[in-house]
Structure formats: C-alpha cells, structure tokens
Amino acid sequence: MPKYQCKELKATRLGFGEALVELGHENPNVVVLGGDVTGSVRTDLFMKAFPDRFISVGVSEQDMMGTAAGLALVGKIPFASTYGEFATGRPFDQIRQSIAYSELPVKICASHCGITVGPDGATHQSLEDIALMRILPHMTVASPCDYHQAKKMVKASVQWNHPIYIRFFRDNTPVFTDPNGAFEFGKADVLINGTEVTVIACGLQVWEAILAEEVLAAEKISCRVINMHTIKPLDKEAIVKAANETGAIVTAEDHQIHGGLGGAVAEVLAQTIPTPQEFVAVNDTFGESGKGDELMKKYGIAKDDIVKAVHKVLKRKRKL
C-alpha cells in the first residue's frame, strides 16, 4: 500500500485563488493586484467576488510592486500576482527597494513557475525565481507541494508580517496532503521516515520524491522524504537531523541548479555537518515548449532522476 495516494488532480494556482476569496470574506483589508493574466493565475475569483478591492495594472509589473508597497504602508494587505517570470525578473528593482528594503508585508504570489509551464516555452518558464527572491534580505520564499498546502500557505501569509514570495504551478497536479493538517512557515514536513538517505524536495518535486521512495523501498533502500515548503527561512534543524541520521542528502526542485533549494541546503550542510549531496534540478539551461511531464523527464527532475541521484549519493556515502 503506497504511503501517500493521489486523491485528485488540482492546480496549486486554484488553491491560491480560492484562498484569496476566503480571505476576502474574513478581512476587509485584503486587496489583490493583477497583471494581464488574471484568469490564468486565478485572481479572477477574487475580482468577481470583490471588484472594488481588485486593482488591474495590466502588463506593468513594476507599477504593480510599487502600488502594492504603497497599499501596505496604509494598512492594506496586498497580494500581487502574475506569472513567476514577470513577478520576479521584471520588477526586481521595485521589489528590492520598495518592498524588501522597507520590510513591507506584501504577498507576491506567482503562478506558472518552473518547467511545467510547457507550451509557453522558455520565456515563460520561471527557473530563476527562488534564487532571485531568496537573496533579498527580509524576504520569505515558499513553494507549496499541492492544492491543499497552497490554500493553507496563502491563508497563513496574512499573519506573516514580512515580505513573502510564493510560487505556484500551471498544471493540475496530485493532491495528497491532509487538508486539515498543520502548516507553519519555516517548519518542514517529514512525510516519510527513512534511515539510509534523505530526499529534500519542494513544490512539484515532493510528489516525485514520494514516487521515488516507492521505487527505492522495493529495492530495500530506506529513504526519508522531507517537504521543504519554505526555502527561506529554511528549517535548518530538519536538515541537520536528516544529515546526522541518514548520512546522505538529495535535493529536488523545479528550478535552476544554482541558487535554489539545493544551494540553500548545501549552505547549511557546509556550515554544520558536511554530508554527501546530489542535486536534482534543471542543469544550467533554459527550457523549451512541450508537455509538462515530458519536460520534467527531459530536463532531469522527475521520479527516475531522483532514484538515480539516490543511488549516486549512496555510493559516495559508502566510500566515506
């Protein structure tokens, strides 16, 4: 019997949109800013429910971030949303100067992140966003693993008094977490216990890690799976504990190999308990158009790639 089962397929961006509507009913200070992709990122749900609290800035992402900062200064709770590539790359200066520097609690919620944007191609595949956001002081960076966690993360962000960047995905993906389970920023979820190796994943790669663990279990390899939904602040305690107890780490993410979750984990290991680590990530290249699952396989971030990385890191561990 699998330890986790796919209950249905739903997009994390839908969880974001539905959570916004719930928050809108709960708190009159919640406002939403959208670009020219309102339906795609599912802020259309909030726009229909609260048209007087929705601001469309069109294809002007720099203005979106500046406006969000101004709204935060007067006590509003602004959620600014567009595609990941345009939420981080284009307005980086405004995010740095007006939001992060001033430590304003703006919620930057980006959809269509990672390689699985698929047909939209390389220009829309945000593979650098985690790196860009996590280098900014005061900025929280998070990536939910499924629809339920996306809803909980968005609702929790209202009480998170820091700038925050949350990334969502375009495709419908497996829903497997408990909708009533606890959630806390900066506190990783140990989904599966194991003693020989640990896979630390975020976003869509959490499900791939679960699938990989099933393969490894059949091979009599005991694998721990950790959902590191918050990349910053990172749960250093969970990382050090896993390194101490399993002695080998694999990180998995839908992001460039440089500057993302893998790099963040490596920094912790280097400073605390140097441990063999393998990286499952897009290897310093741009993507291309195609179906999401096909692109994950081509660019080496699917289940089988995690299994291969586990075998590789275990060989290194045994040589120590």
Structure notes:
The protein is an alpha/beta fold and 320 residues long. The protein has 2 domains: 9-175, 3-Layer(aba) Sandwich (Rossmann fold), CATH 3.40.50.970; 189-312, Rossmann fold. It has helices at 12-26, 38-41, 44-49, 61-73, 84-88, 92-100, 129-134, 147-157, 205-218, 236-246, 261-272, 292-298, 303-319; strands at residues 8-10, 30-34, 54-56, 77-83, 107-111, 140-142, 164-167, 173-175, 189-192, 197-201, 223-227, 230-232, 249-256, 277-282. The strands form 3 sheets. A 7-stranded mixed β-sheet has the order 3-2-4-5-7-6-12, with helices on both faces. The protein has a 5-stranded mixed β-sheet with strand order 9-11-10-13-14, sandwiched between helices. Helix 8 (147-157) links the parallel strand 6 and strand 7. The mean pLDDT is 96.
Outline the secondary-structure elements.
Elements: E1 8-10, H1 12-26, E2 30-34, H2 38-41, H3 44-49, E3 54-56, H4 61-73, E4 77-83, H5 84-88, H6 92-100, E5 107-111, H7 129-134, E6 140-142, H8 147-157, E7 164-167, E8 173-175, E9 189-192, E10 197-201, H9 205-218, E11 223-227, E12 230-232, H10 236-246, E13 249-256, H11 261-272, E14 277-282, H12 292-298, H13 303-319
Parallel strand pairs: 2-3, 2-4, 4-5, 5-7, 6-7, 10-11, 10-13, 13-14
Antiparallel strand pairs: 1-8, 6-12, 9-11
Helix pairs in contact: 1-8, 4-6, 9-13, 10-11
